[in-house]
């Protein structure tokens, strides 16, 4: 038996009471202890033809949405609401212990003052009644026996209630989701001298003032760099990237006995000042690509790298205005990102007055 409670407060409760209390009072005057059970309280069902109806249509619409949400959160199939009724307790009136065979019980506390009214009680002493405020709804297993003690105050207590049936979703009816060929993204923090690498990057810019452009807008991009021993700090970075990428390659791509390796095909420096960014692009002709962040401000808005869906998938989603999202990674100084070269990506604008320096590279397979 499920002894867990679902509780939620409905903001429209007071407004509903104000609109319907006169009809409830008129019904009470006609038959103050009308009910279908062995209890002393005023109970009216939505199918009682001899009573003035309240706005059951509104209640059914609102309650059904809540019941469906409840079922979906628990992997249950909603099988519809039963009749709705209200219980109106004036001084001395009560509800005897009872249960509802099967399904769930739903109670809405329409007029309720926790300082003078009793919440729903349970005959099982191990089940503690949750604290209730006016406007709360309470859903619980219909097989749990419950009751309402006599109203000891002169202030009336009003609840609405109903039961609803559910069905466990069996595996053959459940919709399952598998992700085929997920796109990998690898990242690690390298312990290198980023200040020394930054100095070499600025020296390269001084020796080649004109940016080669390509995807870099309002920034500077070097030509492909040589593996020059004078660039000692950059070469240490290349050695680290080679080691990390080969660890990935061996563990995730190679069969036992396959001794192929990865190598850096080309690499370059990108310096984006304020307003600098990189347009969407891919890296054709290589197996893996990556970026290492040499200089950036922690938690600064210096341009996250955005990864995009494949063009055809992206076109279809956007053509039909469907829910979609890209994935971004903010720059972190000293961090290396590696990703498949065919994965489209771009870099947001640097919104700060400090350069963002990155080294990018393409990696190929030594066949």
Oligomer type:
single chain
How many DSSP H or I helices?
Answer: 5
| Low-pLDDT stretches | none
Determine the CATH topology of the largest domain.
Answer: Jelly Rolls
SSE topology sketch:
Elements: E1 6-9, H1 13-30, E2 42-45, H2 56-73, E3 76-81, E4 85-89, E5 95-98, E6 104-111, E7 121-122, E8 136-141, E9 146-148, E10 157-168, E11 186-189, H3 194-207, E12 216-217, E13 220-221, H4 232-252, E14 261-272, E15 277-281, E16 288-295, E17 305-307, H5 311-319, E18 327-329, E19 335-340, E20 345-347, E21 356-366
Antiparallel strand pairs: 1-8, 2-4, 3-10, 4-10, 5-9, 6-8, 6-10, 7-9, 11-19, 12-15, 13-14, 14-21, 15-20, 16-19, 16-21, 17-18, 17-20
Description:
The protein has 367 residues and is α+β, with helices and mostly antiparallel strands. The chain folds into two domains: 6-168, Jelly Rolls; 186-366, Sandwich (Jelly Rolls), CATH 2.60.120.620. The chain is 22% helix and 31% strand. The chain has helices at 13-30, 56-73, 194-207, 232-252, 311-319; strands spanning 6-9, 42-45, 76-81, 85-89, 95-98, 104-111, 121-122, 136-141, 146-148, 157-168, 186-189, 216-217, 220-221, 261-272, 277-281, 288-295, 305-307, 327-329, 335-340, 345-347, 356-366. Strands 1, 2, 3, 4, 6, 8 and 10 form a seven-stranded antiparallel sheet that branches. The radius of gyration is 34 Å and the shape is elongated. The two termini are 63 Å apart. The relative contact order is 0.13. The model has no long low-confidence stretch (mean pLDDT 91).
